[in-house]
Amino acid sequence: RSLTFGARPTLRMINGILSLGVTNYQIEKAPLEEGSTIQLDLVSEEDKRFKLSVEGGDSLEFQVNL
Known about the structure:
This protein is of the alpha+beta class. It has one helix at residues 8-28, and strands spanning 38-44, 49-54, 59-63. The protein is 32% helix and 27% strand.
């Protein structure tokens, strides 16, 4: 949390990571159904790798440039 900007930079970063994961999942795996439940996990802090899992579906690991 930034004293100057509050939580906005953190929220923008999380939204960007989530958007990238959802986009990559839909390109590489399958379109997400409306109302799908997804889970985002940090796989490696050092490599900035995340894993997006879809309930009843596949999962996808992806790397983010922060």
